[in-house]
Specification:
Chain lengths: 113, 111
Amino acid sequence: GAGVSQTPSNKVTEKGKYVELRCDPISGHTALYWYRQSLGQGPEFLIYFQGTGAADDSGLPNDRFFAVRPEGSVSTLKIQRTERGDSAVYLCASSLDTGDGYTFGSGTRLTVV
Amino acid sequence: GESVGLHLPTLSVQEGDNSIINCAYSNSASDYFIWYKQESGKGPQFIIDIRSNMDKRQGQRVTVLLNKTVKHLSLQIAATQPGDSAVYFCAENQNGQNFVFGPGTRLSVLP
């Protein structure tokens, strides 16, 4: 597609449940990034992929968070045993190559109740 | 959509005036900077970028200034319009890979 697509746009889940958030980057973009944005704050880096491999996952807050990009295109961010503190907007971005400016998707708003 | 940045610093300007949004960045080794605009319910949108070998770059109605001595970045918007109302973030690239975002400034354009 023309832009970065994220699904779902909104997700409400119960505490303790497992969720998957999907990102479709711009075709041909090799770098893909996940960020988390809490209310009133700037986006915070979670993980970035160059191709299929996670080049830097230093921003993942704990081992409940995991992301994959098996074919170097679509990526899925997975959160296990969700907690209320995980509630935020999860943003995905892609760029042609590492270090280039990003194009962001509209995000998935995750609410854990 | 969700309002981004309920407790952010706010800059209010009259329509038609010029706006200046400031940002202090953290890492003197950062060599690439981007300003993003974020409207409610949307992801950040690229506005303009600048590399560390420059101190000024101009786009359409926007200018970015970089002062590496004091680690300061500014975004100037000429003839501010109602459509410019949004939250603005500066982002610095520290390691050639991912960008680190500042806390953001809400720009409110008054009619």
